[in-house]
Write a structure and sequence with these properties.
The protein has 10 helices and 10 strands. The protein is an alpha/beta fold. The longest helix has 21 residues.
Length: about 375
Amino acid sequence: MISRIDKDHSRFREIVRGKIRQNLRKYISRGDMMSRKGQDTVTIPMPQIDIPRFTLGGNQKQGVGQGEGEPGDPVGGGDPQQGQGAGKAGEGEGDKNLEVEVTLDELAAILGEELGLPRIEPRGTQSLDTKKDRYVSLRRTGPESLRSFKATFKRALRRQVASGTFVKDLPIIVPIREDRRYRSWRTDPRPQSNAVIIYMMDVSGSMGDEQKEIVRIESFWIDTWLRSQYQGLESRYIIHDATARVVDREVFFRTRESGGTMISSAYRVCSELIEKEFPPENWNIYAFHFSDGDNWSVDDTATCINLLRDTLLPACNQFGYGQVESPYGSGQFIKDIRAAFPSQPKLVTSEVTGKDDIMDSIREFLKGGR
């Protein structure tokens, strides 16, 4: 029975994965899925999945295939129009949606399969050592908070049985001091390749709510993929108009300013953040900047190019620039950096005109496997 349940569950999960792959572009372009995100899972609404199965019915007629009806009549009789959902008063059934919980690891695997993303090879050979305590044995002494009640009572039971004081009809076990056992731990070093994602976004007046929603959706999927590739992943957020500052995630997606745009301010803050907190020899660094392509001046664009060439590109595994179309932005910046770096593999650019382009933009950013 357990084997059949496991097989049925596995088949159901495969059906769900197939449905997600089939509708991945739609799921990627929708932002409501991220509001259903738990710690390690996300809830995805999908059409009702009907799995065929046999059911037993009462054999009210004698024999097989007997009774009223002519060839071509609907099976089961009744009005063929019933339940079609048309007409006056609510006889038909509405569409049913099934909410399925999918782990973020499963979601990342589906994303990788559908977009053909290669697995990322962490840069360099150096890794960071983290320490983890593991309870591996028992000992006679220790703090009461680490006392193992199961092991203590087993020792007490064994002692009472051996001494003949255990009464089967009145099974009372009374541990004494010598019976107590305490959990003992060992600290193991665990090497892991750590990574950080630094998101930068233009929050000037030309970046509206629609543009920021596109950035929010795209950053969710980038996060999901990179977290499946690294054991440890940090995230940092920088917003800018004419000046830049580091903020938390909530502020990053909710702030809107009305000033001008000076992109070099964000690139300077990003460079300082890397220098202070994330030395490139120990960290795999990913930076993503989203803007509508409108910059303050040609001189500031030249400063951005110098910062990219001298500081950011040497430090990063990859630097991604996503230009989100806005009715108020000039869109010039992406042309300038493409002209400055015509064949730089670490610099990836992408143009997003709307939510339907998010999937293609993600593929462009992640297909290099850096």
